[in-house]
């Protein structure tokens, strides 16, 4: 049997878990969070929203299907550390190209295995998400008190502005599948590759823009729709950056769609606050109810922050009436916003899935409908103008 | 949307007797449904012919009909009860087929009964293969290429259309895959498709392209009326396509799928449930995935709760049947709370942070002639499930849960040549999993094993990990805590470690404890710890943190009965569940330990705490320690779960665990032949002459002394395992050679076989002072047929008051002599007016639920209370037992209850493809039982037959062929049958006897005579062609066996009643007479109980 070097997971509050090294040797820090998805570790690892987070997998067996070239959601692994119970010794899948262990080593991701991931999860559930460090090999040899000190000295997630780390350095275009029907300006705040793909499938040419793009850059594209992606960090940090741009877009009545971080930014643009959840929603089994239809969809979640909006009534905002369109049935957290007087909506969860169920894919149709409606309005207005 | 207010009453249809493919899981689901519906304020009417179920307890429904589940009887119930709705999706294929029949014959319309939980169109689209294939096409998914055939000509043409052999044959509308299989050539096709066409109620089979060796998956889905759909669980089959999922080792959640592939299955599953039109409720969908390219084929769906959904419920903590019942009365998923978290709704998909492994349990040892190759026809009789934090841990726990010698992996003993092991492993059998380790020991690689078995390499690597850990353990200089911890984490039992290290199990345990290597208990919570769990549903793991909560109330641990097997089935679960209810009512915290996912006992709702754990000494002792650390422990109940917990009694006591009720020493007194003989001698009770032999010479000497035929068996057995009647020395020698292999530590018992004896079963309670005679059952078949396979009547139909008095006195003497505190079951034989004691079992017996239902007394509850110190007098005062009288003094107007065994003959084939013989003997072979209850014996017997095998014929042709010794006793019933209008057919010898007795009989040709000169068919051919309505064939000795074998297997194949004892024949004639008079009514247990209690009160 191959023996892995020792490793230790150290939580900010002093609790430690000893296990075996996994992936690269060394030390790493981040916010300790757990995700309950039983499939899709490859998508999770490459989801930019996990930037600066040490992800605990509650599913015990990880790596069974290896790593393939089709499923990554971005160009690299973003988690800052990886905590699993039973890493697979072999990769078994016809699409697999290499093992997960090899991939983690290649990308320098420090992980730990063989720990009681359920005990860690219960700890985080009771105490809330917190900073942690993973130390393996020589780094694991230091005494626990020293390691706890190092963790406590690492940066906090609250107040963290991480978009700059994950956004694309320069814009690129995802061409529509089939006929070009719409043009979308999509801010990459940590976008997953499935998202523009889902829009392209519906005839959108998606201009993926870096987070540094200006309002002028957006308007220059003459977009039919404006999109804001998911991403890591505290939404409060967008007050001076994204929020003014969204407000300007809303004023121009360009259809807006936001996912996850994008939902929080749209909420802020409407004047709602945001707050940090105790331990967040991370998994692919979360029940979300569409409040208009009563229908429940099983959805993929990855968020530590949420929008603070009243779910029981319509709110008046500078952009007219806004309602909470979706809520999580587990805990009543706001999962979606819909403006009634401007063409804008957003969801806190992941209709692009990857990993996760496809129940919410209809939201991309809703976006294209909004763009189509807006286009025909424009045409009508133009005709009226001519007449 | 709240529940519907227009429904006031609902008829729930159960699944009938336990048969292969339809077992205790439907008791679990039906019980849940009844409870839910009642809690919603509906009047629940239940029909189920199986008395061993919890669902047929009178407390579970408002009106409980233990009546045959046939359209005729269910119609009578509908006419009487006039329910608003019928819920057919929780009683397996039996309930679904009955509902379809009642819809098609207009009964539901006539009485304005609404089918809820499913609609006929959906059932038909799900079950009709052609329609289902169209649906799969319509949603853009793929089915295996196939052709529908209605005749053998269609089949032969179909094979060409599919591009040749092998092809899969699947009959329509049969349960558990009955009649299906792989045909590799025309001969096999003719056999399998021929049977399939006969079995299918629509004479329809489907031939399919072979997808042997593909990966197999199942999804359990639920849908509500708002079209919300959730996938409750994914299940992956360890054994690739080709083995029925009921016979496969299965794993939850799926282990070898990427998210893309999993979501594709999920998308297809949801599209299927929508297109089929399951409006509310659960369904199960099976898929095959090509490991080479991921091509997905939808195999089939079941638009109802199934065995897999019971497994999924236990595996996830998401109670599918309970939620299906709520959905059926109008709720939506988001309106139903998750029981376990209590805060979150049921409209989610459970997340597992553990691995669940189910392993099937087979009974091929009971059917030595049967082919043990696993195919698409289900053959297993039970299953064990285990939960671990990893696959190796769960797999090894599951294998030891099987409680079968050799079921655990072993590294002891010789290893065969690699090529031989790999060749064997290519054939799926019940022991193939063990061949994997043998192959690794022989030096095989993962790829070689994959080549041979097609099992996914990931699973093979996990087994390799187990093997490598065993090698490391073997080679280690010393057992370090780290190594021991890792070994335990990989699922090894102390016993396995002991075997590998050449130590004893107690030494390993002591060492392990001294090194502090102990399991922790985790919780099944539906959500991978995302939310706090409110239900203590635990499993062990060698991990860091335990989740057992402290408690104040004294706890009682109840040990369940493990996987169902022939001889130890649902009846024992019934008693354990009752003990749990009774002791909870009496103020104890109840803790259930069991590993059978089908049962009510492993519902997290049944007891205060549930440990889903193997029932080995090691696992039980660890639970005892964990519960002792949590709070006071009043004791452990071992007498209710059958032989499994009983076998642990002494070891538990030796370890200082308080065993409540009958002491281990008393148990030994009853089970040890010598000790029990002394008890009988002291009480002055006779037993048949017997002796104990340790060698063939000794056995021969005993047999010579007491005279042939003799009954021989190993000591300490349940279900008559290894028991045989031998007629001469040659048979005796052959038996001893086999039997000593069965149980090397235990001697062989040789008993005089009592000819012409009436066998009697007694269940009684004893508190040390007072005896409560629970019930006296008179067997229909004579002594020598295993009591579990024999039909019996309660109250006894031919015994008088004097006999009952003798039985009572004997039972009390034995109970007192043994030292029983609780239940005792005694088997007697009455021969020549001498009452012989055959055996005594100081525990709950198989017949406890039957007796409880027939006499309207909760015997198992009373037994549990007596075990904890209550007296019969106290229980009488409390009202748990009748104030006066007992089961031996039933009022004279009490109804007669008949229990009939249900045999699995049609499931098994010899390797050559012919049927296995259907004769009854001292070895138990039945899988389940039914009860018929009515005012007199004839009617009750007719109902028991209808419940077990379909109604007895009212007219037609009866073929009679009996052994010489039976010819005299046959005359009367044959005469009666003739007078009832039946044409009697017989072969020459029997026909002569009949004619001499004034009964006209048509002579037919024996098989050995062959067809006649003008093409007159043999009797076997006539039976196969369906021309005979009733077959009576009693086998005896060795001589007449072969012809009889052909006759009986033909009867099974043709689906005609086949009676193999003269006593059974006489009872059947009684029943036919009652049926002909057309006066068979129905009655609920509640009505019967009211009547019995009223008569009792009058004294």
UniProtKB/TrEMBL annotation, chain A:
Residues 5-135 form the Carbamoyl-phosphate synthase small subunit N-terminal domain. Keywords: Amino-acid biosynthesis, Arginine biosynthesis, ATP-binding, Glutamine amidotransferase, Ligase, Nucleotide-binding, Pyrimidine biosynthesis. Pathway: Amino-acid biosynthesis; L-arginine biosynthesis; carbamoyl phosphate from bicarbonate: step 1/1; Pyrimidine metabolism; UMP biosynthesis via de novo pathway; (S)-dihydroorotate from bicarbonate: step 1/3. L-glutamine binds at residues 49, 231, 233, 261, 264, 302, 304-305. Its EC number is 6.3.5.5. Residues 1-179 are annotated as: CPSase. The active site is at residues 260, 350, 352. The keyword Nucleotide-binding applies. It comes from the Bacteria. The keyword Transmembrane does not apply. It is an enzyme of class 6 (ligase). It catalyses: hydrogencarbonate + L-glutamine + 2 ATP + H2O = carbamoyl phosphate + L-glutamate + 2 ADP + phosphate + 2 H(+); L-glutamine + H2O = L-glutamate + NH4(+). SMART domains: CPSase_sm_chain. InterPro entries: Anth_synth/Amidotransfase, CarbamoylP_synth_ssu, CarbamoylP_synth_ssu_N, CarbP_synth_ssu_N_sf, Class_I_gatase-like, CPSase_GATase1, GATASE. NCBIfam families: CPSaseIIsmall (TIGR01368), PRK12838.1 (NF009475). Small subunit of the glutamine-dependent carbamoyl phosphate synthetase (CPSase). CPSase catalyzes the formation of carbamoyl phosphate from the ammonia moiety of glutamine, carbonate, and phosphate donated by ATP, constituting the first step of 2 biosynthetic pathways, one leading to arginine and/or urea and the other to pyrimidine nucleotides. The small subunit (glutamine amidotransferase) binds and cleaves glutamine to supply the large subunit with the substrate ammonia. Belongs to the CarA family. Composed of two chains; the small (or glutamine) chain promotes the hydrolysis of glutamine to ammonia, which is used by the large (or ammonia) chain to synthesize carbamoyl phosphate. Tetramer of heterodimers (alpha,beta)4. This is Carbamoyl phosphate synthase small chain. It comes from Catenulispora yoronensis.
Automatic annotation (TrEMBL), chain B:
Mg(2+) 1 binds at residues 286, 300. Mn(2+) 2 binds at residues 300, 302. Mn(2+) 3 binds at residues 827, 839. ATP 2 binds at residues 713, 752, 754, 759, 784-787, 827, 839. Keywords: Amino-acid biosynthesis, Arginine biosynthesis, ATP-binding, Ligase, Magnesium, Manganese, Metal-binding, Nucleotide-binding, Pyrimidine biosynthesis, Repeat. ATP 1 binds at residues 129, 170, 176-177, 209, 211, 216, 242-244, 286, 300. Residues 133-329, 677-868 form the ATP-grasp domain. InterPro entries: ATP-grasp, ATP_grasp_subdomain_1, CarbamoylP_synth_lsu_oligo_sf, CPAse_ATP-bd, CPSase_dom, CPSase_lsu, CPSase_lsu_oligo, CPSase_preATP-grasp. Its EC number is 6.3.4.16, 6.3.5.5. Its cofactor is Mg(2+); Mn(2+). Mg(2+) 2 binds at residues 300, 302. It catalyses: hydrogencarbonate + NH4(+) + 2 ATP = carbamoyl phosphate + 2 ADP + phosphate + 2 H(+); hydrogencarbonate + L-glutamine + 2 ATP + H2O = carbamoyl phosphate + L-glutamate + 2 ADP + phosphate + 2 H(+). Binds 4 Mg(2+) or Mn(2+) ions per subunit. Mn(2+) 4 binds at residues 839, 841. Mg(2+) 4 binds at residues 839, 841. Pathway: Pyrimidine metabolism; UMP biosynthesis via de novo pathway; (S)-dihydroorotate from bicarbonate: step 1/3; Amino-acid biosynthesis; L-arginine biosynthesis; carbamoyl phosphate from bicarbonate: step 1/1. Residues 950-1095 form the MGS-like domain. It is an enzyme of class 6 (ligase). Pfam families: CPSase_L_D1, CPSase_L_D2, CPSase_L_D3, MGS. Mg(2+) 3 binds at residues 827, 839. The keyword ATP-binding applies. Belongs to the CarB family. Large subunit of the glutamine-dependent carbamoyl phosphate synthetase (CPSase). CPSase catalyzes the formation of carbamoyl phosphate from the ammonia moiety of glutamine, carbonate, and phosphate donated by ATP, constituting the first step of 2 biosynthetic pathways, one leading to arginine and/or urea and the other to pyrimidine nucleotides. Composed of two chains; the small (or glutamine) chain promotes the hydrolysis of glutamine to ammonia, which is used by the large (or ammonia) chain to synthesize carbamoyl phosphate. Tetramer of heterodimers (alpha,beta)4. This is Carbamoyl phosphate synthase large chain. It comes from Catenulispora yoronensis. The gene is carB.
